[in-house]
Fold each of these.
Amino acid sequence: QVQLQESGPGLVKPSETLSLTCTVSGGSISSYYWSWIRQPPGKQLEWIGYIYYSGDTNYNPSLKSRVSISVDTSKNQFSLKLSSVTAADTAVYYCARTRDYSTKYYFDYWGQGTLVTVSS
Amino acid sequence: DIQMTQSPSSLSASVGDRVTITCRASQSISSYLNWYQQKPGKAPKLLIHAASSLQSGDPSRFSGSGSGTDFTLTISSLQPEDSATYYCQQSYSTPWTFGQGTKVEIK
């Protein structure tokens, strides 16, 4: 059974960089896409971007200038960096495995989520 | 970006009722549509992918249909454990986007 676990600081100061890591267990990170998704308190889900195990990335244009996703296949981990954060970036951040079913993508395994609060 | 609009935003139904949630895309997305169930304090859980493919192990009372711009998620006989918020999500083109959610409550 594939499991994902987010880790990183729960509090980030405005203008600083949010950094999270997702550790994948129970399966290999290879041959899949991996996404970050966030959900501000009481609001809907927002896809941040994905990375393929080979390193190819695709980001949401609304965040593209501030976001970077990387992968470390040796550790079975992928990471998110979001720079110049503001209070609007306060959210629960999820990592998720992204399956490709004949080019139809979907999120089949999710981490439990981690709340990141942006505040001084 | 493709906008996903769900209706209703919330509903209350009795155990055993048939429940239908609608999701409309701002442009045609073929069958690139997924449904997720989210319970309070938990991560979303995939229910249906590619508009109508039920995830293995999920109850057959859940079904999805539609193509193009209009989609539905149907719960044929509502159970107490189905109390949750349901989201649709398109994967036709990036940025992948979600609906605003439909909260299902049990009367």
Note: The first strand of chain A starts at residue 3 and ends at 7.
Amino acid sequence: RKEVEQDPGPFNVPEGATVAFNCTYSNSASQSFFWYRQDCRKEPKLLMSVYSSGNEDGRFTAQLNRASQYISLLIRDSKLSDSATYLCVVSTGGGNKLTFGTGTQLKVEL
Amino acid sequence: EAGVAQSPRYKIIEKRQSVAFWCNPISGHATLYWYQQILGQGPKLLIQFQNNGVVDDSQLPKDRFSAERLKGVDSTLKIQPAKLEDSAVYLCASSSQGRGGAYNEQFFGPGTRLTVL
């Protein structure tokens, strides 16, 4: 079983749609959780951290369910510029070590 | 502020040849990481340095891969000899040193795209 599992997609959605991505992780000792965004042929960049209480950054909302070992990302009012791969990322133990999922590809269309 | 620098950006070699990649982290960042990203997959950590010491190299194929960060600043990753399955993007990242185990954001360089023929 992979440490971090995501549906690779692609998710093709029209502009203005709401889209949700899910991710599960296998290590219950995982401590920190993130969503990274990676544009085609570019490096990953931190989109947002994920907290148990849930957190929101503009059109983006992230949720963490520790009991189910489940992380989600909701994007409202999708823009063309949201087209990218969204990587679910987990940190287990100290030392800043990150484990990445395979990523979910999003394509926002006119 | 300058970001993480990597070179070369692209490299094409034949199998069994050797190749080296260079990374210069963000100024002041004590921690440096090398990741391998195979097409269609997420980045996989190969090695993590704290200053010039290795923190984690558990996923580094040590029979062919080596890395060093001699002066605690820039770093090189070498593959010798290369195999077809080494074709990937090699990403370097850096972060400041965390306090008490707190997470510090990793900033990635543009990567080196390696093709092994």
Note: Chain A has a mean pLDDT of 94.
Amino acid sequence: NAGVTQTPKFRVLKTGQSMTLLCAQDMNHEYMYWYRQDPGMGLRLIHYSVGEGTTAKGEVPDGYNVSRLKKQNFLLGLESAAPSQTSVYFCASSYQANREQQRPQHFGDGTRLSIL
Amino acid sequence: KQEVTQIPAALSVPEGENLVLNCSFTDSAIYNLQWFRQDPGKGLTSLLLIQSSQREQTSGRLNASLDKSSGRSTLYIAASQPGDSATYLCAVNRGYSTLTFGKGTMLLVSP
């Protein structure tokens, strides 16, 4: 039962480098999300997707891009990493029948990203 | 802008005690509220989800209530155990399952 899998689990980058975080889910969920978690700030939504080929901005989208080319995958990209993007990144997915009827979100174990 | 506050930020109790965690939100126009558990170095595990039309949900020793009009939710844990030690997060649904999270309550249950 894989659920939501995030790769890599840890990464250290230098300022200005780029990288892509991969999220894969095997539950056939329509909705997928990227959050970042910082001490004292809680979890904040970066981007989300309500279906294959769709993306939307969350609370803190600047400096990130996303793509949902396949239903099971949601990619988070950092084009030019900055120290302020040091964080723990979580991916989540859910099935939702309609806007109001929410199903629980299922989270991956996170990617710990440090930018020097 | 929706804000979610959790009180207390940290709580330490002896094993066997019943306890209540509090969550408040500023905008009562929510679709539902969800309680999560997070263990150190791990992702979030959904515990309970309360739709806006519901007043409470129960799962085992956990009971969550929702008072939408007053912007409050509580998570009640009965007969706490050391294995309950974790950070508990509440989150409100703003639409399309986009959640606004509180900062969490860190719970330590000592044997």
Note: The longest strand of chain B covers residues 44-51.
